[in-house]
Design a protein that fits this description.
The chain is of the alpha+beta class. The chain is built from 12 helices and 14 strands. Helix 1 packs across helix 2, helix 6 crosses helix 7 and helix 8 crosses helix 10.
């Protein structure tokens, strides 16, 4: 069982539960619930995969919204590529928990994660709803555990923030270890706060947070059919009230913490890879360059082998630039673990043995400077090991 972490900051208005319904072969929790005791405002972003799960299709119709009350989450079955029956089963799950909580079905959001293409076990879920509701309490750890698939550890993060002299909490939890390359938000991720956010501002805030966190993490370059990120405030502010920079920063910090936990827990990962691209004109150039580096199998295997082969990084940057408006050959600088190996288009001598020993550390940093602007973007990935192949070769069998 995953080790529980220290008690996080807990936003008011939320309770949680997680139980074992029997959706997995293992003796693990696989059904979770987030509940609010009042109408809450919610924003969300979802996968851009062209075969979205039933829950993504359902939730897209309900977000952003201002009457959220509950979110039910299952692991062990993705309810993706399950046709009309999967759509109907997802609705049954929402309607079932709505009845138990005495709220409206349209106040319920859903999430699913697991194996794609398997019939959705709605009867098994329905038989566990009473137990799920009866277990509601103040601790988020059971629901954080219930959403795990190949994850090896709970992914929970929190922060406190003071706005106009009043203290608020931000709590986030996520699951994700493989099939990670968001093109919207992430895997399954939930960030909750009791700080006031106007319904008219929640979606804008959700997108801004995703762009600086979940859209900057990759394990294997594969965007899931189920990726979803929900941001929920239990205290809606008056319409058009601006979001304070303090709150946006706190939520972004929690999202970045979760992103790093996901990358560090990548299937078979031995190293957390943090990549910063800077000297960039804007986000439209930074994102494809960042993605090209953290998804390159040659970069990932070099990190796994402690090989200071900076040419692979140069290659990846060039591939990323092919997707941008930059047509010149920028005078690139590459820094690995604090060692400058390539400066403004020229290779520099360095101690390969010493740098290789630095690459043996768990956290590996790469910095790329294109000297073409003031914008910078940081993202997270992991190395590529033999264990990744074994885990994914055996996943559904």
């Amino acid at each position: 069982m995953p080790t529980q972490q220290t008690a996080p900051y807990l936003p008011g208005g939320f309770t949680y539960s997680g139980v074992r319904a029997g959706l997995k072969h293992e003796e693990k929790k696989d059904l979770g619930l987030i509940f609010t005791d009042r109408d809450a405002t919610v924003g969300a972003v979802y996968t851009k995969n062209q075969f979205p799960s039933a829950h993504v299709q359902y939730c897209r119709q309900l977000t952003p919204g201002k009457t959220f009350r509950a979110l039910i989450i299952n692991s062990g079955n993705a309810n993706a590529a399950t046709g009309d029956l999967g759509i109907a089963s997802n609705l049954r799950m929402a309607e079932g928990i709505a009845r138990k909580l005495e709220i409206k079905p349209e106040q319920v959001l859903t999430s699913s994660t697991g194996i794609i293409g398997r019939p959705f076990p709605i009867e098994t879920i329905e038989s566990s709803l009473d137990h799920l509701v009866n277990q509601l309490g103040p601790s988020p750890f059971d629901v954080a555990e219930a959403i795990m698939t190949t994850d090896t550890q709970l992914k929970v993060s929190s922060a406190d923030v003071v706005i106009n002299g009043i203290s608020y909490a931000v709590l986030g939890f996520a699951k994700g270890s493989g099939m990670i390359h968001p093109n919207m938000g992430t895997m399954l991720s939930y960030i909750l706060t009791d700080a006031p956010v106007a319904p008219s501002r929640i979606q804008e805030l959700t997108l801004a947070v995703a762009d600086r966190s979940f859209n900057c993490v990759s394990v294997d370059g594969d965007t899931s059919t189920n990726d979803s990120f929900f941001l929920i405030s239990s205290q809606p502010a008056q319409e058009d009230t601006p979001v304070s920079i303090e709150l946006q920063n706190a939520i972004t910090d929690v999202a970045i913490s979760l992103s790093k936990k996901i990358a560090a827990d990548g299937e078979g990962a031995e190293h957390l890879l943090e990549v910063t691209v800077k000297g960039i004109p804007d986000h439209s150039v930074a994102q494809p360059v960042l993605n090209a580096i953290i998804t390159s199998n040659l970069v990932k295997t070099a990190v796994n082998g402690k090989d200071p082969n900076w040419g692979r990084i140069l290659m990846a940057v060039g591939n990323g630039l092919n997707q941008t408006s930059l047509t010149s050959h920028p005078p690139i600088t590459i820094v690995m673990q604090g060692t400058v190996v390539f400066s403004r288009g020229e290779p520099l001598p360095f101690d390969e043995k010493e740098l290789s020993s630095k690459l043996a550390e768990h956290d590996v940093s790469i910095e790329v400077d294109l000297h073409q602007g003031e914008y910078s973007l940081t993202g997270w990935g992991c190395d590529f090991s033999d264990e990744y192949v074994r885990i994914n070769a055996d996943y559904s069998t």
